[in-house]
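Data card: per-record layout.
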Amino acid sequence: MTASIVSPIAQSRAGSGPVTPLDIPRVFRRGFRLIRARPVTILAASLLLYGAPDATYAWLMAQPYSRGLARVGIILASSSVMSGLGSLLLAWLAVQLADEASLRPASVFRSAGRALAAAPALFALTVIYSLAVYGGMILLLVPGVMIGIAWSIGAPALAVERLSPLQALSRSADLTRGNRWRLFGLMAAVSMPLGVPNLVARYLLADHNVVVLGSVLKFSAIAVAPLVSTLSQGVVDVLLASAYIELARLDRGAALAEVFA
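The structure for this 261-residue chain is written out next.
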């Protein structure tokens, strides 16, 4: 199945004309339809996979021992764990939307099982993704951002189409070609309004600010940052999963059910 998905796309795109623009309103409609259908389930999953790790990270960063190498270790470990769990959430959402697009009953438990079965491959994909993006950021900002956008729907492709990590990243790069700035705008439009209070809360937890915070303000900062991050990332992931479905639809058209089998 893998070869039948990846190879024809590469062949058809090689000599293709203009890429069909991503329908952003359609992405929003599909994404928020899922949110309206399962608000509690999606919020609970986001809290478990984003909020809890982020709250732990915020608490650790506010501790007296979070200095020097210890702080670097906390940042690296937390980033790795949260990225892996984030890929798991994104894959879970994408499987639900793929079932809906294929006119199959969308099951929370079936999609969770599918995502969990792909967990080892998703974590491997996350490692490759992170190394490439961070490497691009170190060399120059723009390459890192572009790699991040090009590979942003690798996790959905891996879980839904049962691809290997490298095949999923290649599939993502192919699907997003010609629509990467639209995807960037989509994520920025959702992330930025919710990102400001998150940044304020994290600023309050910085080394030079923690000592002047009262216990109530300190607790509020630790609680607010993960909550805002949960809301922001949860919505972004729903829309990314929806964008994957839409890009796959543009690529495969009538054969979409075959891709999502």
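Known properties of this structure: The chain has a mean pLDDT of 79. Residues 23-259 form one domain.

See the next section for split statistics.
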